[in-house]
Please model this.
Amino acid sequence: MEKEKIPMAIVMNHALRAGLIFGLIEIILTLVIYFIDRSYFASFLFGLTIILLLIMYPIFTVINLRKQNEGFIDFKSAFTSSFFTCFNAAILSAIFTYILYNFMDPELGAFLKEKAVEKATSMMERFNVPQEDIDKQIEQLENQPLDYGIAANLKALFFKGFFIGIYSLILAAILKKKQPEPGF
Model:
């Protein structure tokens, strides 16, 4: 007899719990880095760590849900689990980012912009970019407005949601596993 698909309530509870854990992991990692040395936010290693976490955690949660269902998961359940896990974490992260940049350390945005300018200048100098071009790039960076308000966070959350959706579609297509048909 064919096992029924995973009830959506179970998938959503799983995604909510996993999303809260994921969001808290992001917040704790951010706070640890912030208190160690906030200039690490502008580092390649920090960015790479976050990207790897964003890629791996949803894979882990979908596989975990599949294991709870005797090793099988349909596309819809895999997509829903991945999407809502990531989106719930993104909401928590957006709230924390708003608090960090607007209340905890309102100077953080300007500090990180300064670090980005330093890194960009250093990299362009290493590649022997003409000083005139470096000056143009630095001027563009310096003229970008700093906006960490609610509207900017909502806009970023919208775009994150779009990319989370695409990633979740790909992930669900890869990780779905149908139960074999009974018979023959």
Notes: DSSP finds six helices and no strands in the chain. The two ends are 13 Å apart (CA to CA).
